[in-house]
Design a protein that fits this description.
Structural class: alpha/beta
Protein name: Cof-like hydrolase
Pfam family, one: Hydrolase_3
Organism: Fannyhessea vaginae PB189-T1-4
Oligomer: single chain
InterPro entries: Cof, HAD-like_sf, HAD-SF_hydro_IIB, HAD_sf
Radius of gyration: 18 Å
Strand order of the largest sheet: 5-4-3-2-1-12-13-14
Shape: globular
Length: 268
């Protein structure tokens, strides 16, 4: 499928899509593309399972000229202004917590508006080193349920080989108010049942007076599927996980080959 309507919104996942495996990107090249996009009235949206505060750090100096669908759609920001947050109700959070914390194959994080939290009995030096890049506002607490914060989501961290089995179990046993979402290699987010990247993107698109026909999107993982389906043209990265390329309209070069920038350079 080709883009038949003007492009006014470009949405991109980060890890495995916009970022190379070493978490870098060609910043001067992107800045030049972004300037050309803005000159044509086109907006750039970062759509990721990561925290808003973590995502902004990648765009030092111009972070507020970009919009964000963070936490897999649980936190939506339009050029520095928060327009939506999804809250897991306390009673539901307690049920989810009880199920997650009892599983010895994984570690459990609670992601709130103020920070991300991990229990002291799970906060090993090895784990903190592994996740600190993704959760720069990480706090260690005695009990997740004692945290004074709004619950945006839970994040379960595990060995990649255990992810599919754990996802299937969570999908069958979690309360209907929430849903598990495979957010990357070795992590599963538990978010509100109605939340995903496509819904967050749609909020921004409609806020700006456009619709899905004016969007293109890039992704590589299962949590990108709804967004790739939503956009007029969805690009799966050459390195995309199994099943993602089949639902996308087009393929972009791999993340390590700067696939998003390669495509955008041809469009703007």
């Amino acid at each position: 499928m080709s883009q038949t309507e003007p492009i006014y919104v470009v949405a991109s996942d980060m890890d495995g899509t916009f970022l190379r495996d070493d978490k870098t990107f060609d910043e001067p090249r992107f800045r030049s593309i972004l300037q050309r996009m803005h000159a044509k009235g086109c907006k750039f949206v970062v759509a990721s399972g990561n925290q808003y505060i973590q995502l902004k750090q990648s765009f030092d100096g111009y972070a507020d000229t970009i919009s964000y669908v963070a936490e897999n759609g649980s936190y939506v920001v339009d050029n520095g202004k928060t327009i939506y947050t999804a809250h897991i109700e306390p009673s539901v959070a307690q049920t989810v917590y009880t199920q997650l914390i009892s599983n010895k194959k994984m570690f459990t994080l609670l992601c709130g508006l103020k920070a991300t939290y991990i229990q002291k009995n799970q906060a090993t030096d090895e784990l903190i080193s592994l996740i600190s890049y993704y959760f720069p506002s990480l706090e260690v607490v005695n009990n997740l349920l004692d945290v004074d914060d709004v619950v945006l989501k839970f994040c379960a961290v595990m060995k990649p080989q255990d992810m599919l089995e754990i996802y299937q179990t969570l999908d069958e046993t979690l309360p209907s108010d929430v849903q598990p979402m495979m957010s990357g290699y070795g992590s599963i987010d538990i978010v509100c049942a109605h939340v995903n990247k496509a819904r967050g993107l749609d909020m921004l698109v409609k806020r700006w007076g456009y619709d899905a026909r004016n969007c293109i999107a890039f992704g590589d993982a299962a949590n990108d599927i709804e967004m790739l389906k939503y956009a007029q043209v969805g690009y799966a990265m050459a390195n995309a996980m199994e099943g993602v390329a089949e639902i996308a309209n087009k393929q972009a070069p791999s993340n390590n080959d700067d696939g998003v920038l390669e495509v955008l350079d041809t469009l703007f």
